[in-house]
Design a protein that fits this description.
single chain, about 140 residues, mainly alpha
């Protein structure tokens, strides 16, 4: 795999976890601000949700953000699952376990799989380094 593709795949492997943390922190900060402003019931963190901490526009943006994140994770899970299925270093039940982990535990499995199998993937030999011609005669 080319170094640029590995770099982009590494960024993609960390993106779902990072995006989930950012979205979660944003939601928590809005709920805390809403509660501290006295607009929501104090002492009940979920009461802020019921009494309207988010406007309609914020709800649409959050829903779109979570939808795009889910689509990105699905696409990335497909890419990593195909890579795991084709990797000759993973055999038998280990291959099935990795594919299931990549599909169902994606935010945690993506970075782990990337470090263990994509980053450590041996680079193919260059034509100049071959002892014989790559074209069969």
């Amino acid at each position: 795999m080319k170094p640029l593709l590995k770099f982009l795949l590494g960024i993609g492997a960390l993106a779902p976890l990072g995006a989930s943390m950012v979205l979660g922190a944003y939601i928590a900060s809005v709920l805390i601000d809403f509660d501290l402003a006295g607009a929501g019931p104090s002492g009940d963190p979920f009461g802020a949700v019921e009494s309207g901490a988010f406007g309609a526009a914020e709800i649409v943006v959050l829903a779109a953000s979570f939808g795009l994140l889910a689509l990105f994770e699905l696409l990335l899970a497909l890419v990593f699952a195909i890579h795991a299925a084709k990797d000759p270093r993973i055999v038998g039940a280990k291959k099935a376990a990795w594919i299931l982990a990549l599909v169902f535990l994606s935010p945690l499995a993506f970075p782990t799989y990337f470090v263990l199998y994509v980053l450590r993937e041996p680079t193919p030999p260059r034509v100049a380094d071959l002892h014989r011609s790559p074209i069969a005669s």
